[in-house]
């Protein structure tokens, strides 16, 4: 089974990115950054999600992100599936913070249960087949709308969503050009998927 050790965000200022992610989310080395001037405009075709246990933790993390300089794309609120909000980090990365619970069971702890990388794809069937062939078994699948892969315990989770639908989900235009400004660090060797998302071997990447 292919695992994802970390993701590397390509940013203008890695020091500022490290400061933001440490202050806002307290993330360790599963989210890394490196300097890049690769041109990119608009939606970069992916989001990262922090899954937490209750609304209080969503509110705490969204508030910390905004205090650290993030922009609110969708305020935290209840929905049919739970409770969540969307922010955009100063480096341009879009983050969803979500809980399947609509009620608090205790005070906020800011504990993050899972990190999920959600890729926006053009051809769901083709991308699903590509990743299965690269060692990622399907864990959940909802036709042509959503696919989630099993990536092993402690690993960053990987899921696919139609690009236009993903942009709508987080409240931005689907239009965008240039680099994704993202590298996925796994254990199955370097490759690039059908939508241009680049993978590298985890040993080749440097931490924040």
Automatic annotation (TrEMBL):
<dbReference type="InterPro" id="IPR029068">
    <property type="entry name" value="Glyas_Bleomycin-R_OHBP_Dase"/>
</dbReference>
<protein>
    <submittedName>
        <fullName>Glyoxalase</fullName>
    </submittedName>
</protein>
